[in-house]
C-alpha cells in the first residue's frame, strides 16, 4: 500500500517516534471504545425511568435509574475527555520531536548543497520550507496518528453494533457513505492543488521579504520605501488571493458533508419512527440507533477531514522533500585523500567554468602559483577573478580542465582537509551575528582565546576594538553591522591570521576603503600573510605592489583567450 506523502517524507525522522505515535493511537482507540458506551445511559433513562416499564431495570426505582444514568454520563464524558487529552498530548509531543529532527536534517542538507542550488533557491523560500512547511507536514502526521486508526475502529465498531441492532436501519443510514466518499476524493484533489499554489506563493513572499529586509539600508538610502512596500504589497496580495481561494475550497466542503449526512439521519428517523409507531422498536432503541448513526458519521466526517488535512500536508511535504532529496552537492570521492600540504604549487590547467550553461565565465585558464609566492590577479570587473578563488576552494567544480595542489586534483581530495589549506577573505567579509572574538575564531576551529587576540593584533583589529563597549566580546549584529567597512575587513583578515592554512585567498580586501583604512588593511595583509602562499584579487595598484607577480586577466572576447598573459613581476614586499 502506498503511504500518504507526508508520512513518506517524515518517515526517517519519525522512526524513533513510532512507539509514541502508536501509544497516541492506542489512547484514541480506547477513547472510541468509551465513546461507544455513551448512548446507553440515555436509552436506560428513556426506556426504564421515563416511559414503558418504570422500575423494571435491576429492581431500581425511576429516580435512582435517572441518577445512575446521569452519573454514568458524567463518568463516560470525563473518561473521553481525559483520553482525548492524553492521546493528543502524546501525538503532538511526538510530532514536535519529528519536526525538530526534520528541520535539523533539512538545515544540514541546505548547508551541504552546492552553491549552484543556493544560487537558485532564495534564502527566504528555504526558511519558509524549514518552518511553515514542516509545521503543515506535522499536522498531517498528527492527524494520521489521532484520526485514521481511531476513526477506522470507530467506523467498524459502530457499523457492527448498528447491524446487530437493526440491519435494515443500518443499511438505510449507510446509503450516504459512498456518495460522501466519492465527493471526498474529488475534494482532496482540489484542496491539494489549491494548497500547492498557496505554498508556492507564500515561499515567493518569504523570498521577496528577506531580500527587502536584508537591503533595508539601500531601500532607505535611495528613498525607495514606497517601492519596496509596493513590491511587498503585490506579493502579499498574491498570497492573500491564493490563500482565500484555498480557504474557499476547504470551507465549501463542510456544508456539503453535513447535508449529505443529515439526509442519512433524516431517512433513518422517518423509517425508524414508523417502526416505533408500529411497535417494532422502542423510542429508546430508536434514539440509540440515531446516536450510533451520529457516531458513525463522526468518523466518516473525520476520515474525509483527514483526507483534506493530508492534502494540505501533501502540498508542504513535496516542498520539504525537494530539499531533503536534493543531491546537488560537491561530493567527496569514496577514496578521497587528505589534501596535500602545499609545498610545491597550485596549478590551474585548461580550466573552464560557467554558472549557467550558455554563458561561459572561464575558458582555457592556465595559471601556476608556486608555494610561498604572492600572486596578484588583476582584470576588468566581471571577468571571473572571484570565480577562480571559488573554484580553488571547490565551492564549485570545474566544467573542464583541472586544478591541482602539489600535483593532486582537488576532486581527489577530501573537502574538509582541502578547505583547511586555504584562509579565505571574501569580498563581502561574511561576518556572523556574534562577538568580535567569535567571528575571528570562525577561521580556525581549534583557535584559543590567546590565538584570537594575537590574530586581532596582527590584523590591526586592536586599533578599534577598545572603542567597542565590550572589546573583543562585543556582539557585531547581523552581518557585522556595528562595524565600518574597513573594520569588517580587518576582522575578516584576523580570521585568516588565526587560521593555520598555508595559502591565503584575498578578494578585493581594500575595495571602497579610504586611503587611511586601505593602508591599514595593506599593512595587516603584510603581517598576516608572512611566509604563506597568497592569491590576491584586487583593482588596487598599491596593494598589487606587495605581490611577487601580477597576472592580468584580459577582457573577455567572443571566444575568451587562455589566461596566460602575465605582467612584469613587481618587487617583493
Ligand atoms: N552565482 C552566480 N551565478 C551566475 N553568474 C554569476 C554568479 N557569480 C558570478 N557570476 C557571473 O560570473 C562572472 C564572473 O564573476 P566574478 O565575480 O568572478 O567576477 P570578478 O572578476 O571577480 O568581478 P569583480 O572584479 O567585479 O569582483 C560575472 O559575469 C558574473 O555575472
UniProtKB/TrEMBL annotation:
Protein name: ABC transporter ATP-binding protein
Segments traversing the membrane: 63-83, 137-162, 168-185, 253-270
Spans annotated as Disordered: 554-573
Lineage: Bacteria, Bacillati, Actinomycetota, Actinomycetes, Propionibacteriales
SUPFAM superfamilies (UniProt xref): ABC transporter transmembrane region, P-loop containing nucleoside triphosphate hydrolases
Protein topology in the membrane: Multi-pass membrane protein
Record-linked PANTHER family: ATP-BINDING CASSETTE SUB-FAMILY B (PTHR24221), ATP-BINDING CASSETTE SUB-FAMILY B MEMBER 6 (PTHR24221:SF654)
Top-rank taxon, per record: Bacteria
InterPro entries (alphabetical): AAA+_ATPase (IPR003593), ABC1_TM_dom (IPR011527), ABC1_TM_sf (IPR036640), ABC_transporter-like_ATP-bd (IPR003439), ABC_transporter-like_CS (IPR017871), P-loop_NTPase (IPR027417), Type_1_exporter (IPR039421)
Keywords assigned by UniProt, alphabetized: ATP-binding, Membrane, Nucleotide-binding, Transmembrane, Transmembrane helix
MF terms in GO: ATP binding
UniProt organism field: Kribbella alba
Entry-linked PROSITE patterns: ABC_TM1F (PS50929), ABC_TRANSPORTER_1 (PS00211), ABC_TRANSPORTER_2 (PS50893)
ABC transporter domain ranges (all copies): 346-571
